[in-house]
Design goal:
The structure is a single chain. By secondary structure, the protein is α/β, with parallel strands linked by helices. The protein has three domains: 98 residues, MurE/MurF, N-terminal domain (Udp-n-acetylmuramoylalanyl-d-glutamate--2,6- Diaminopimelate Ligase, Chain: A, domain 1); 228 residues, Mur-like, catalytic domain (UDP-N-acetylmuramoyl-L-alanine:D-glutamate ligase), CATH 3.40.1190; 155 residues, Mur ligase, C-terminal domain (Protein-Tyrosine Phosphatase, Chain A), CATH 3.90.190.20. It is built from 15 helices and 26 strands. It has an eleven-stranded mixed sheet, sandwiched between helices. It has a six-stranded mixed sheet with strand order 19-20-24-21-22-23, sandwiched between helices. Strands 2-7-6-5-4 form a five-stranded mixed sheet, with helices on one face. Helix 4 packs across helix 10 and helix 11 packs parallel to helix 12. The longest helix is centred in the C-terminal third of the chain and has 15 residues.
């Protein structure tokens, strides 16, 4: 375990010593009082639920060596052997201390940060696929998972807390990773999780009103301001030239500027975009123009796939990538739970998508309607212990935009699945949409598959990449891909 003096860890932090000495040696940085112990420096973080300053008595009993605060605190007699450091913002301090503790790993990596309301996850996987096709060793950090070589770590947040993030980056350096592509959420920028990282490339996909409310952003203006911070932390900025809020995102930027989009004024742009639809398959094709020139086919459906692919191309052209690398990677890339096609029939199409609110569901159904399917059949539920309004809204969206809906269970958590489904049904009844209820999600999926008609597109919405179902505080294994495989295997055995 590494040992540092506080002075070394705090070299990029504004601070004062309230008592003790900044020459005090520490062996670890913690912000969770349960992990504190002898040799620790405990950083008091103000979270959405708890304030770390309240846990000072607990960590003193555990024998910590130092405490970092941002509030006025009483330093009692019991703390005479403990160093107290005060700093204006403990989140900034923790992030910068973590960077030093882990050896400033981002300086040894090519760092790509992607921010935006939509498209972050798909774009990062496209970038990873292209760069790996070109021979680079690539790490990924995002909403679904963190990937370090063969190691896969499921994500709790889109962008991890700074201590965890710097630990992951240090592991990537050790594993021989050359390039890291990561989703940078507005929350992460607001809460300084990426403080101390200099991004080689910062990317803006788009922005729309989302994540506004208690515990998130106070206003759309605040949301945009947080997104724009990335472009004061990177060398090269790559922007969606078609987004109406681009001017606001560019305010106070310190990076060079490149754009992608559908206009000839963009650095690279797409023309001749087409939706491809034939039995059992959906995809997209377009021509890249501007600074690059070649055709692209991707098996991820929807017009937004053009933007995601263009964005990935705009990023990867800063590396040693051939046209063949671009084309092969974009043709083959798959993103778990993001408009993910699962082959079940030559007659109809089945997709898994993470759409778990009205905006996302409306977006995916609008996208699929553009392919002019025979029917759109939507299978979805809503999570328990979340805003009831989401259920009414999703029910109304599916009723209005689907030809048939199967209302089922999602993650009921501590609620009765039937009560959640009642709320969805309330929204559904505001429309003329046809629907049925099947509480068991596996049975609902089996019904959709067994009643699929030629030309149908079936959407399993809400679970996406999740491989569990949460009921009464316990997570039970539930991967829709496994469910589909099991259903098809049972049908095969029965000779269906």
């Amino acid at each position: 375990m590494a040992s540092y003096s506080l002075k070394e860890l705090l070299k990029n932090v504004s601070y004062s010593v309230l008592c003790g000495s900044d020459e005090t040696a520490v062996t670890e940085i913690v912000n969770d009082s349960r992990k504190a112990g002898p040799g620790s420096v405990f950083v008091c973080i103000k979270g959405a639920v708890a304030d770390g300053h309240r846990y000072i008595p607990d960590v003193l009993k555990k024998g910590v060596s130092a405490i970092v605060v941002e509030d006025d605190v009483e330093v009692g007699e019991e703390a005479k052997d403990v160093t107290y450091i005060r700093t204006p913002d403990t989140r900034i301090a923790m992030a910068r201390m973590a960077a030093v503790y882990y050896g400033n790993p981002s300086s040894k990596l090519k760092m790509i940060g992607v921010t935006g309301t939509k498209g972050k996850t798909t774009t990062t996987y496209m970038v990873k696929a292209i760069l790996e096709q070109a021979g680079y060793k690539v790490g990924l950090i995002g909403t679904i998972e963190t990937l370090i070589g063969p190691e896969r770590i499921p994500s709790a947040n889109t962008t991890p807390e700074s201590l965890t993030l710097q630990e992951y980056l240090a592991k990537m350096v050790k594993a021989g990773i050359e390039v890291v592509v990561m989703e940078v959420s507005s929350q992460a920028l607001m809460l300084h999780r990426v403080e101390g990282i200099e991004f080689d490339i910062g990317v803006f996909t788009n922005i729309s009103a989302d994540h506004i409310g208690p515990g998130e952003h106070s206003s759309f203006e605040d949301y945009m301001e947080c997104k724009s911070r990335l472009f004061r932390m990177c060398k090269v900025g790559i922007f969606n030239g078609d987004d109406i809020h681009l001017g606001r995102i560019l305010e106070h930027h310190t990076c060079s500027v490149e754009t992608f989009g559908l206009k000839e004024t963009d650095s690279i742009y797409a023309v001749d975009g087409k939706l491809v639809y034939h039995p059992g398959y959906l995809g997209t094709t377009f021509e890249v123009k501007g600074d690059l020139n070649f055709p692209v086919v991707t098996d991820i459906p929807g017009r937004f796939s053009v933007y995601n692919a263009l964005c990935a191309i705009a990023i990867c052209r800063h590396f040693d990538v051939t046209t063949d690398d671009f084309q092969k990677a974009l043709k083959d890339v798959r993103v778990k739970g993001r408009v993910e096609m699962v082959k079940v029939s030559d007659d109809f199409i089945l997709l898994i998508d993470y759409a778990h609110n009205a905006m996302a569901l409306s977006s995916i159904l609008t996208t699929l309607r553009e392919y002019h399917p025979g029917r759109i059949v939507t299978v979805f539920g809503c999570g328990g212990n979340r805003a009831r309004s989401r259920r009414y809204e999703m029910g109304e969206v599916s009723g209005r935009m689907s030809d048939f809906t199967i209302i089922t269970s999602d993650n009921p958590r501590y609620e009765d699945p039937e009560a959640i489904m009642d709320d969805i049904e309330t929204g559904m009844k505001k429309t003329d949409g046809k629907y049925m209820r099947i509480t068991d999600r596996r049975e609902a999926i089996a019904y959709a598959i067994h009643h699929g008609r030629p030309g149908d597109i079936i959407v399993l919405a809400g679970k996406g990449h999740e491989d569990y179902q949460e009921i009464n505080g316990k997570k039970y294994p539930m991967d829709e891909r496994v469910i589909i495989r099991d259903i098809l295997e049972e049908d095969r055995k029965k000779g269906n």
